[in-house]
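Lab manual, section 2.4: Encoding a predicted structure.

Procedure: take the sequence of the chain (209 residues), apply the prediction step described in section 2.3, and record the output as structure tokens. A sample record is shown.
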Amino acid sequence: MALTRPTTESSPGSRRNFLYAATAAVGAVGIAAAAWPLLDQMNPDAKVRAAGDVVGVDLAALEPGRQRVVHWRQYPVFVAQRTEAMLKAMQEAPFVATLVDADSAKRQQPAYARNWHRSLDPAYAVLLGVCTACSCVPGYYAEDSPPAMAGGYVCPCCASHYDPAGRTYSGVASYNLPVPPHVIAEPGKLLIGKNATDEPYSLDRVERI
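Recorded output:
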């Protein structure tokens, strides 16, 4: 009886299956190679992420009584230059007596902003624009109205009133507007998102937003 000699040739069907599998594998590698640059472009690099954590504001472009709204970490931030009338009214004893948290005892600001003007420079307000009672965005008004205070903020949703330093004095709000970390890096240059001191202050330490 003759022995059957093994053959190295495959059948047409198995050869066709191999070619299909090889083609699919090469195609998958090609798609992945093409998709990688696109995915890599969609992911911001370290410089872009770092830039998003710190927002610069040109204070020289602000006029007394004017406000600019910028966005930092998806929050609106009010940056306003206070007038002399505002600064004077903020310190008057009858008005200070109406403040809910006149001494900024609640954790709504870093230590370097725990003062009567709640900022590094009395001339400038730097406040998170979120009402601490209902989370709406308060509106900024000039020093001619309402008569209770020379300028400040009023929430359009719950009617809570805040003075030009973000201190609440009327309405349902019981917390002052939060103060984000900030530093005046150079004359006329404000950086939001960077602390003026070595204090590790962030929004995680705010008592109420």
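Check your result against the sample. The radius of gyration is 30 Å.
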